[in-house]
Amino acid sequence: METPKLVNRPFNDLGATAELDKEMVTLTPPGDIFRVDYRNEKVLKHHGDHSSAPKPLKLLQWNIERGYQLPGIIEELRKIDADVISLQEVDVLCERSGGVDTGILIAMFS
Question: I need a labelling partner for 47 at 20 to 30 A (CA). Which of 14, 63, 67, 99 fits?
Fold first, then answer.
């Protein structure tokens, strides 16, 4: 499985009347990782080198396409080490995925 490209985008504190930043609404290409740091810049400046700043919450949303490449998916989930994971197309005993419960396998091995 190919390593996904990391897409870093800064969070702009948009006022209630400000127009949306086009960079913020641009779709991330399939297979790339989209990351935005929503932590308050004042808090980060207060902590200097950011090492003592509050740790960001890492969320992952992924359509795993019925677990077609399950070993690679599990490997990537381990690498990403997200705090919260939301997966789509997690097959449970479906014929198309060989009758396995991909969710249980992911939970057991990631």
Answer: 14
Phi, then psi, of 66 in degrees rounded to 5: 60, 15
Domain segments of the chain as ranges: 1-54, 57-110
Burial zone of 84 (CB within 10 Å; 0-12 exposed, 13-18 middle, 19+ buried): exposed
> Given this model, what pLDDT does residue 59 score?
86
Using N-to-C axis directions, what is the helix angle for 70-80 and 102-109, rounded to 10°? 40
pLDDT in tens, 71-90: 999 999 998 888 999 999 99
**Quick check: pTM over 0.70?**
no
β partners of residue 101: 92
